[in-house]
Design brief:
The structure is a single chain. By secondary structure, the protein is an alpha+beta fold. 12% of the residues lie in helices and 28% in strands. This is Fimbrial protein. It comes from bacterium 19GA11TI05.
C-alpha cells in the first residue's frame, strides 16, 4: 500500500465516522417555541363613562372660555410602573374648528385643554405615566353666531396607547 492510498483510506474513514457512530442514519425533530407577551393592562376611569354637565348655558357667555369643566378621569395600570403613553381623544370634528369636538348644535363645539394647552381632537400627545395631564373641557362657538335655545350633547372617546 502506498502512502497516497493510505492517506485516501484514512480520509474516507474520517468522512464516514459520523455515519458509523450514528449507525448510518439520524433522526431529528423540529422544536417550535410559542407564547404570547402581555403588557399589564391599563384602564381609564376604571372603564366607566364620564359625564360632564354644563347645566344651564347662556349663549352670549360662551365666548372667552366662560364655560369650562374639569374632565375627571384617572389612568391606572396594573403594574404601576413608569412608562411613556400616547393619550388622545377621538370624535367627530366640528365646523367651528376642526380641532374641536362637534355637538348636536351645529355652531357649538367642545375644545379640550391639557395642562392649559390646546389638545386637538384626534391627535396623540405623549405623557409619562403615572403623571397625567389636567384636561379641561370648554364650550366654544362660531363668532357672531346666535345659537338656538335647547339641549345639546357630544360624545368622544379617550384612548391610551402604551408599550
Amino acid at each position: 500500500m502506498t502512502l497516497t492510498m493510505l492517506f485516501r483510506t484514512g480520509c474516507a474513514a474520517l468522512l464516514c465516522l459520523p455515519l458509523m457512530v450514528s449507525g448510518g442514519s439520524y433522526t431529528y425533530i423540529d422544536v417550535y417555541v410559542r407564547g404570547e407577551i402581555f403588557i399589564a393592562p391599563c384602564k381609564i376611569n376604571q372603564g366607566n363613562n364620564i359625564l360632564i354637565d354644563f347645566k344651564d348655558v347662556t349663549t352670549t357667555r360662551i365666548d372667552n372660555d366662560n364655560y369650562r369643566e374639569k374632565l375627571d378621569y384617572r389612568i391606572e395600570c396594573q403594574d404601576n410602573r413608569a412608562r411613556a403613553m400616547k393619550l388622545y381623544i377621538t370624535g367627530t370634528s366640528s365646523s367651528v374648528d376642526s380641532r374641536y369636538l362637534s355637538t348636536s348644535v351645529s355652531d357649538l363645539a367642545v375644545k379640550f385643554l391639557a395642562d392649559n394647552k390646546l389638545m386637538p381632537l384626534n391627535e396623540k400627545m405623549t405623557i409619562q405615566y403615572p403623571v397625567q395631564p389636567e384636561i379641561m373641557v370648554i364650550l366654544a362657538k362660531k363668532p357672531a353666531v346666535k345659537l338656538p335655545a335647547g339641549e345639546f350633547n357630544a360624545t368622544a372617546t379617550i384612548h391610551i396607547d402604551y408599550e
